[in-house]
Amino acid sequence: MRSGRHFLQIPGPTNTPERILRAMHRSVIDHRGPEFAELGLGLLRDLKPVFQTEGRVVIYPASGSGAWEAALVNVLQPGDQVLMYETGQFSTLWKNMATKLGYDPIFIAGDWRRGVDANLIADALAKDTDHKIKAVCVVHNDTATGITSDIGAVRAAIDGAAHPALMMVDTISSLGSIDFKTDAWGVDVVVAGSQKGLMLPPGLSFNAISEKAWAACQAGGDRRSYWDWRDMMTPNDAGYFPYTPATTLLYGLREALDMLAGEGLEQVFARHERHASATRAAVESWGFEILALNPDERSNSLTAVLMPDGQGGDALRAEILDGFDMSLGTGLNKVADKIFRIGHLGDFNDLMLMGTLSGVEMGMIRAGVPHQSGGAQSALKYLADHRI
Amino acid sequence: MRSGRHFLQIPGPTNTPERILRAMHRSVIDHRGPEFAELGLGLLRDLKPVFQTEGRVVIYPASGSGAWEAALVNVLQPGDQVLMYETGQFSTLWKNMATKLGYDPIFIAGDWRRGVDANLIADALAKDTDHKIKAVCVVHNDTATGITSDIGAVRAAIDGAAHPALMMVDTISSLGSIDFKTDAWGVDVVVAGSQKGLMLPPGLSFNAISEKAWAACQAGGDRRSYWDWRDMMTPNDAGYFPYTPATTLLYGLREALDMLAGEGLEQVFARHERHASATRAAVESWGFEILALNPDERSNSLTAVLMPDGQGGDALRAEILDGFDMSLGTGLNKVADKIFRIGHLGDFNDLMLMGTLSGVEMGMIRAGVPHQSGGAQSALKYLADHRI
Amino acid sequence: MRSGRHFLQIPGPTNTPERILRAMHRSVIDHRGPEFAELGLGLLRDLKPVFQTEGRVVIYPASGSGAWEAALVNVLQPGDQVLMYETGQFSTLWKNMATKLGYDPIFIAGDWRRGVDANLIADALAKDTDHKIKAVCVVHNDTATGITSDIGAVRAAIDGAAHPALMMVDTISSLGSIDFKTDAWGVDVVVAGSQKGLMLPPGLSFNAISEKAWAACQAGGDRRSYWDWRDMMTPNDAGYFPYTPATTLLYGLREALDMLAGEGLEQVFARHERHASATRAAVESWGFEILALNPDERSNSLTAVLMPDGQGGDALRAEILDGFDMSLGTGLNKVADKIFRIGHLGDFNDLMLMGTLSGVEMGMIRAGVPHQSGGAQSALKYLADHRI
Amino acid sequence: MRSGRHFLQIPGPTNTPERILRAMHRSVIDHRGPEFAELGLGLLRDLKPVFQTEGRVVIYPASGSGAWEAALVNVLQPGDQVLMYETGQFSTLWKNMATKLGYDPIFIAGDWRRGVDANLIADALAKDTDHKIKAVCVVHNDTATGITSDIGAVRAAIDGAAHPALMMVDTISSLGSIDFKTDAWGVDVVVAGSQKGLMLPPGLSFNAISEKAWAACQAGGDRRSYWDWRDMMTPNDAGYFPYTPATTLLYGLREALDMLAGEGLEQVFARHERHASATRAAVESWGFEILALNPDERSNSLTAVLMPDGQGGDALRAEILDGFDMSLGTGLNKVADKIFRIGHLGDFNDLMLMGTLSGVEMGMIRAGVPHQSGGAQSALKYLADHRI
Hints:
Four copies of one chain form a homotetramer. Helix content of chain A is 43%, strand content 16%. Chain A has 13 helices and 14 strands. In chain A, the strands form three sheets. Chain A has a seven-stranded mixed β-sheet, sandwiched between helices. A five-stranded mixed β-sheet of chain A has the order 1-13-14-12-11, sandwiched between helices. In chain A, helix 1 runs antiparallel to helix 9 (247-263) and helix 12 (350-367) packs antiparallel against helix 13 (375-385). The longest helix of chain A has 22 residues, at 265-286. Chains A and B meet through helix 1, helix 3 and helix 9 of A and helix 1, helix 3 and helix 9 of B. Chains A, B, C, D: Its cofactor is pyridoxal 5'-phosphate. Chains A, B, C, D: Belongs to the class-V pyridoxal-phosphate-dependent aminotransferase family.
């Protein structure tokens, strides 16, 4: 029995807004009936501005991992080379998936502290003179490291190499939180999920699809059924889906899209930037290091904080969960126990952030983690001084 | 603006009980934290009695179609023959999926009015002396035709042929409604979904897995990632999942399992049988024909009703939706417009059934569909005379 | 563990629509803040058309009984005579309350099978030459007997007698179900509650107040505080209340008013009339007698059905609750065990009514209550033949 | 469109826990049926330990003001003297109500900065040699001033004077937050509401009743109906109520009682004390004065903070609401605009408190209210240093 609200400050799933939970509390309707068609058409239409695309967006009743798989199997053929880039655990997992699915990933190694170096992409593409590489896959915001890569630079690298590879980007922890321009950046396949900036519970994921990717899908792709974009198109045009959709999550999506439109995407991005800046001010005050070395690459949706030598991140997280009922993100794989991650994305505001950062600081005190006090206070000052 | 509750009498998704919607109206928790582990372990444990198995059950954040795909890709290799059986649209769709995924289905043709003839299975297996057929796939209860096949007889046919093929069964519209004995019938892979007898919204699906299927999965199977049973096992043992689960649907599943256990599976099956019998009494009184020719194969979860010559099922359905705010199932593919389907499964009771059948009869009157009046009255008598 | 939805067919509280429960599932806001003011002003404005008045409407966080008390104490002084009329248990209870509160009710006796005879009111007022009678109090629709009285005739009687008494009317089970014209009928104080035609859970009640009643309140009335209309007016003008309002019920009221406006009051009344007519057709078919002798006085929100000699209504109700999970209204006081009451008001539709009437007929069969079968079938025909 | 959760930090209604909103999201049941009886009996039984009484507790579908009125009218007769004590706006309002209802309050004046001086009670009672004073009425925790009075001392004063007056105490903002011992302190009538420590939305209120008060009620009391304890007793014994109860709020009450029992009352009180102490540490750090002069009388459920000279509390509150989406309590009556009030009661935890206090400090910065920075930081230290 804990009193008060749990603070779910992992970098997603995020705190589900009351409005969205309420919208989902509704009886299921006939997914083949006229009322559903209206819902479906509206969703497919209103998702586009969130992706900043005029192209196709498809919705899967699946986790984000499903949308990764969909991106690959719709355009690749077994043995196809894909150029992927290590920015953290999630780019690693996507690479592992590509391997399991029978593709041939070229994985540009990273140190988990820097984003995509577009020059290395350019180099790799330049070497690929016979265009064996069919796709370049990067993670816009790696949730494991809090590193945001420059997608426009990746676009420029591909264009500079005059390489025909498709460009695929995972925006699972950036869409609806950090500016992402599908069309302007020429992204061919976008991978997104419901449970981060879209503020929904997990269970839906998305692909946005360029004309080039759609052509590739029609011309080829792998053996596929559940993920097949082609099966989506005709029913989607009428507001329906080829198999039973996750209706209650779609009710929530309707509400989420209305909320994002109501606040305005520009305002949403500015809000995330402001909370991230305040968080970084706190981390600096504590005397801790942010995992992302390059200030331009520090994520606006989460902050990964390096523990001092000899201090385990998981012990701190456990103390904070036990003492203050807040969940923080753990360090994964190469940074296991070396970092903890603070999610500051989704349906969030200044006072929730202050509760969050205060909880981190109180946890450090209780856990005996050496730090300079006053981090929360620094964030407070930042927020008070920076009106939005 | 319609007054009162919509009657969702398609054969699934079914009317979601208030208890389940309420259980789902809860903030998402950390899917890597200790509270989640307790939830996950409980679900994985308590699903087993619903499947009547001691074996493994896996949960996908996906529609039922995903669990079809999972069943195939975990054990089959490209080009593998699978023996499938046409009992309606859903067996047809599963066959189409097998083709798309690169397997080689042998499809025993049916007329959509009869269930699986186990002799034909036996014959096909007997001919397959070099055991090219790797799996026999049947649909326990074809949702498009309301035909329930004898799965024990299929088991006997396989055993009689001493054939090593795996036996896979789709129970999407029977699990939790019609007795299904995974272990007793030696089913190797069960395919199930959340939105029928389990009373949940759509968005979850399931495989139950025998030791034999598990061995096949480990020894081979296709290229796969999202659906890979192997990735599930280690996290599942601790109550977790390999990727983000659909947490709110899992809350609903917890409630659904408690409800089924509270009522008792035997009682649940008896209730469905009773409502189906009352529905069949109504159909006979109206002078209509049930699509399923064999009384033993008439489904207890839905009833497909043949329209009289010259009368379209879809016009009747539209009249009923417009006039009485009830959704019925349409005729699909070979029986398009020739039938309508009444769902009487899930969270249902006598008075809901009487509202449903009265709505059908009133719709016939309004639509000018010739019939003998008194079908609802016959069902009323049946229900009053047959205590459960 | 009962499967399916309970049928709550008492004549109120009524089946709460999902929309209203959802609207109430919202965090409480500051009842002194600007967001609340907007809510409050909208409610106080939009209640008026439901009461068909241009006058004041006040909202109490209280049951309907509270609004009875409020009506009396705001305008009466101890010892004041009030002319009241026995149409059933609820008029009796209001009379008892008047006595307890120190007023002097003259109670015109009734036999619980007829509504108000306006001639008797006229006679009583004619005799009251020195105008000791300060108020005439009648129940528009007595929930205990299913009798609807002619309020226009009462108005005419008062006017005919040129008597200055205030006219007070209880519309608890008629407002939002049966046409009630506060201003056109010159009603000075209306008493209403949330849990019937307004479709809300219980917990709110209302007074509509004419100018004449408001003048009486300001000039006199009894000692009072919680119920004092005077304390309401200034805060109400700004959208607030003098003490903490029942915020979540007000959220529900917002939704209810939107639902009634969306359907249209005329349509709402026609729907209730249609369902009542179908119910009466069923009762006649069963060979049962309706308690209300005068067809013009038969309620459109509930039907009180007389049991045959030697048959107890409560045994039948218990059988129906036990066997079919439906709650019906009991017989109260003078008609205890002699009747049962079917509520057919609020958020209701044809199929819910057919479930209801089928449940009554099945209950009669099970309980061994002699009846002619086919009542539900008669209602079915009525509904099919009478489009709205 | 505000992002994130509103902080409702008025001293009630408090932040409604998700569990309670969820419990209330349930269809209404028959308030005369067997399922209701079980609910009612459980509530009436389990309220007693919360009041720390073995006596009667009654539940009203009404605001707290209704329970004030009920306390008076059940035992007093017109003209009866009641000794009341000014500790803030709510004691003043209760006094005003007593006057309106025709009783004769003797109001011991206070300066709104100190609690009840039991000596003054003793003096007044000593002078009342012919026992005209029928009741002593005090507010345990005056919500307008954040002052908690010593109820045991009042008991001692009455006993010391050997005076037969009943002792009535308002615990609206203390019950379930600050230790209150109905029986041990010999309180005859307790007045409580749902929307503070009980964590429910407003709409229910309570009286706890001693044997002495019950005897007074039966022997006398005023004209009354809605509030009459006598009408409650027989139905309550069976789990029912004399008129329609506010069923959905009762569902919420069931959950609230389970939550309080789950946490344990001692733990609940300690939690409130700890949050109040941290808040006071913040106020001191800011260099502000707490309205309550006597440290022993500083409330554990709210803190009233004096503004510096020349600074208006309402401008600060408006800035905080606008800039940080938090509602704080206003200054009422004698302290209008001179104070603001921070509610830290109900379903609350450390991180919510840190968000709250950070919001106050950020508001001061934005509003240009002179203060010493670091108040939130002081609270943080307090919380980190004081494990519960």
